[in-house]
Amino acid sequence: MSPDGINNHGASIPGFKREFLHSCLSANVLTFGTYTLKSGRQSPYFFNAGSFHDANLLSAIATAYAHTIVNFLDTNHQVPCPDTLFGPAYKGIPLACCTLLELRRIDPIKWGKVKYSFNRKEKKDHGEGGGLVGAGLRDANVLVIDDVITAGTAMRETIEIVKREGGKVVGFVVAVDRMEKIPSATDDDGVPRPSAMGQIRKEYGVPTASIVTLEDLIELLRQNGDETDMDRLKDYRRRYLASD
Prior knowledge:
- The structure is a single chain.
- By secondary structure, the protein is of the alpha/beta class.
- Mean pLDDT is 88; it is low at 1-11.
- The protein is built from eight helices and eight strands.
């Protein structure tokens, strides 16, 4: 086992995902325990992208997003190369900016003219005014970057913002796909439901991608021999796994 707590022998997790997970664990961005989510569910793990607050960590997450985006475009030929990366306020803002810089480093010809944009929580009525900072979105193909999606409310709001500004969302990329079904009033009811990301794909026809998934976290714990947390994640998956 390596010093960061990830067993690199016989790993089936791709290299950039391993490096990303190493950074998450070392900075306590990804932790295991018992956490109450906004939905009321008791989750055995928690991911907080707001803890990527130094240069090394920003570089790690930007690299992971950039590789995920490159793979996403390579395997979804119907998705055009975006004109703009959009980071929903607030956590999406630094994610979009640092990822765009990393994409330019990887391929300056392809990504050098791509722009970034983000929304204000409250519209500004002085100075340049408006609800956006950065590039305008009119007639732009927009790729949205965010941290994690649970209920899908923020995704819908972002799609409406982009549409209102005259752009088109061509894809969503998040750090973690929790792969869990949309919450309901009787949540632990055994009734199949799609995930928030799956529902967005169905409603809007927008393809999605993630750096890692719940399955990757379970595989990470398996490789590290952490059977207790692995079993807790498997139980959570059994109770809440989405139908898509």
